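Table S4 entry, ATP-dependent 6-phosphofructokinase.
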Amino acid sequence: IKKIGVLTSGGDSPGMNAAIRAVVRTCAFHNIECTGIYRGYQGMIEGDFKEMGPRSVNNIINKGGTILKSARSKEFMTAEGRKKAHDNLIKHSIDAFVVIGGNGSFTGGLIFNKEFGFPVIGIPGTIDNDIYGTSHTLGYDTALNTVVEVIDKIRDTASSHNRLFFVEVMGRDAGHIALNAGIGAGAEEILIPEEDMGLDRLLDSLRKSKASGKSSSIVVIAEGDKIGKNAFELKDYVEENMPEYDVRVSILGHMQRGGSPSCFDRVLASRLGVKAVETLLEGKSNYMVGLIKDEIALTPLEQAVKGKSQIDQELIRVSDIVSI
Ligand code: F6P
């Protein structure tokens, strides 16, 4: 392998730049070339490439988003699109690529590898933490810190006005952000897709909360929660059934995806970037590099795509105990 391409794909997440920096510099360290592929797979199809040396990634370790930009490419889902992408890689003498992204990005890489035998390594980058084969995805830790910081602020108003707040957080179909940030921010209840709490239990818990002397409450709801009502519908429902509550809703949205990466995400990005390049140089392909029990470990990309990241059940119990 003489030249490796690197791209970011799908939703951006804090730490992607630190990972790009690590990939580029590991290539330089091993005296091979590195090409930045802009706008994910769409840029691969359109030949939006730029050579990257170690100085091209100065001062980006602390930046959120991705300097390579990102996209979700529909064209890459077609055989024709992938053929164009492959032609471009060959034209630029790129021998392998590292894709930083989530499940959809890995699926794209896997199909591409099956069609052309092209070496691919994945680095998990998404705030959702919904990828099998790693305890942490890039950006997850930063997003948790952002959410906790914001809920701390919301708590000031909740407690000053004796209000109940429903705070909706991201996570797509997973409840990792909600569960962990909820515990970290001291939420009274946490609603996640992995556990169907039911409306009756929610009301019961809010009643108990009030009876125990709490004057305000924070309920964190994951955007993918399956309780059947969104945060605004929940507000109406609770107000109808418990008129004593003054309820407000806060949807945190994309602010959770931005900002300077935490130290944890920067270190993780650096470790994963080095491992991704060195795995390719060892002649391996079709792996995701991840963090398992604090060690950098390889998981076959196919397994990473098919497997399901699990919620830590013990955390649900902890949350129930510490929120009484
Ligand atoms: O996967 C990251 C994520 O931010 C999810 O948490 C959220 O559901 C989704 O992306 C939002 O996507 P978009 O930015 O395309 O609206």
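Residues 11, 102, 126-128, 170-172, 223, 257 surround 6-O-phosphono-beta-D-fructofuranose (CB under 6 Å).
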